Task: inverse folding
């Protein structure tokens, strides 16, 4: 059991370091509270955005927390892909430049997995290959446009 | 394996039968506030049994059935998800797999029915088939609105458990 | 005590109806759980966005909840103004059209009160009279530009 | 009455002394993720005693003191808020009112000092002066990042209490 955990952990950690660097230009890593007995302790994330010093995870800004969380999600995706991903406004805390970075990453990963991303931000919508429009008709009934090429 | 189509009937704000065709690619879902975007994600969680009614912003399952202003409201809601299974990730021969869930109201009781390729099945059978193809309630492939930083704010033990599930 | 409460409640409720209609085109109101003994019960909000039917508050979308919450905050402001308002990314769930509506409302109210609004959305920044830019220098030190006219 | 200027010294990411001039108008504060925008709002909460350290994303008050990479870090943080009081909303003669708070670290203990127009004062004196001009911890004039829908998600009794405070 410990073997299986450590194999997964090490692979996901490698992915996390790579993807966190790609998204934020900084250094990050997953840290086990108890390396000897990993299942006895928790796991924390150490992340240093570009040109900054290490701070406690709670002190990060909304945008920095989002990038760190997304790097973790994509690190898992790379190790154990799911058949589809449904992400609802994951870009709500991100500034324009970071929305573009995340959109480009999703575009890369969408070569091997299906992504449905709800978003209100232009850089994300423009990067997608297809756009599904949703509107509200009279009497409170939702309807969708067909898939349009972006 | 990917989702080819999602069909909603009387599910939340989707009062008419609506079929949503999908491709195996990067799809952006967009539209005004309150138009029904998050309801599509809720429909996936409902059909694939990935969460409780609380997460779908409903107190009880019947709150998921469309309710309009004018008079007669339907007594059932149904969501059907069609997967492209040509690579046979799901351990069945068919090239298209259809998973459906219906919640039906009779007087003031309700029950929900699951079906796999047209045959009724139990929740645990469905969980079993789905988890073998990497679709599980603990999986991080669905992120709800407002939830993106949850991984950062949870306690270290719960965070480690995410890896436990994968191992 | 009940008198004072009811005077405040009625005035704020009138404001809420007016502002909710201005922001979302629908009908809304503040409802006391126990009209006879207001301090014995709670207060809920009934809000019906334009062209929709009434639903439970929890069933609303992220954007609809934000508009409803903002209508309540501005209803209080109109009754009992504070010397300043500091709002941090209140537009994060709003689509472009709703960001514009809220920005215009803030612009109106800023005739009588000072507003400091942190935002990443263009329609909000463009509506402001002044822009304060914040940047991160080397060694993790923040600095600000002066106030620029928008 | 409005805020004329906020001065930050070693407060969170503001490692140098920074003065932020303000006008009595609609000001948008913008900049990249992590640049320090929310830290300015935290500075207002700190100086005007509107919240606990938890809300300012700090475990203890000393976490609010600037910490850089290279060597010697300061042992204090201070925020000064200057109000234009020409309409005498605050019950004092001066046209400009200055409220300041400083947290100082000595060995591993720390203490915080409040001052009003240059004279040291207690927390309760400060609360008293501020609440007479409409600045209270329960007031809805400050909305933190991610908190905009809190009024909708709180329980009905707490929501009613917002009106109680105003009455
Ligand atoms: N059972 C139901 N019958 C009819 N309408 C419903 C039902 N349940 C929810 N709704 C409506 O669905 C709408 C919410 O849709 P949804 O949350 O998908 O919006 P959204 O497009 O995600 O918006 P946002 O951009 O603000 O997040 C609400 O207006 C709500 O009243
Ligand atoms: N005591 C401290 N010393 C130095 N830097 C600090 C300190 N406390 C917090 N920080 C840094 O301040 C930054 C966060 O700033 P802030 O939350 O104001 O960003 P923001 O501009 O609001 O970003 P966003 O747009 O993502 O919300 C973090 O990078 C954090 O590491
Ligand atoms: Mg939504
Ligand atoms: Mg911020």
Result:
């Amino acid at each position: 059991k410990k073997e299986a955990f450590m194999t997964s952990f090490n692979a996901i950690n490698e992915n996390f370091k790579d993807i966190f660097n790609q998204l934020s230009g900084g250094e990050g890593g997953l840290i086990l509270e108890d390396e000897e007995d990993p299942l006895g302790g928790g796991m924390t994330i150490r992340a240093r955005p570009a040109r900054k010093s290490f701070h406690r995870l709670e002190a990060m800004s909304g945008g920095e927390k989002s990038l760190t969380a997304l790097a973790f999600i994509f690190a898992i995706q790379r190790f154990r892909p799911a058949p589809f991903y449904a992400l609802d406004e994951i870009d709500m805390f991100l500034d324009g430049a970071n929305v573009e970075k995340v959109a480009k990453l999703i575009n890369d990963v969408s070569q091997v997995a299906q992504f449905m991303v709800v978003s209100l931000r232009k850089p994300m919508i423009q990067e997608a290959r297809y756009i599904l429009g949703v509107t509200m008709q009279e009497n409170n009934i939702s309807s969708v446009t067909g898939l349009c090429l972006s | 394996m990917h989702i080819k189509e999602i069909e909603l009937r009387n599910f939340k704000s989707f009062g008419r039968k609506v079929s949503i065709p999908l491709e195996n690619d990067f799809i952006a879902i967009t539209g005004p506030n309150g138009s029904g975007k998050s309801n599509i994600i809720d429909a996936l969680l409902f059909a694939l049994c990935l969460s409780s009614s609380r997460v779908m912003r409903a107190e009880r399952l019947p709150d998921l059935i469309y309710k309009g202003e004018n008079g007669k409201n339907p007594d059932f809601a149904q969501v059907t998800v069609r997967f492209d299974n040509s690579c046979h990730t799901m351990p069945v021969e068919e090239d298209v797999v259809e998973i459906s869930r219906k919640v039906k109201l009779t007087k003031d009781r309700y029950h929900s029915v699951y079906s796999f390729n047209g045959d009724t099945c139990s929740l645990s059978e469905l969980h079993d088939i789905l988890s073998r193809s990497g679709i599980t309630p603990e999986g991080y492939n669905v992120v709800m609105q407002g939830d993106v930083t949850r991984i950062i704010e949870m306690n270290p033990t719960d965070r480690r458990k995410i890896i436990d599930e994968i191992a």
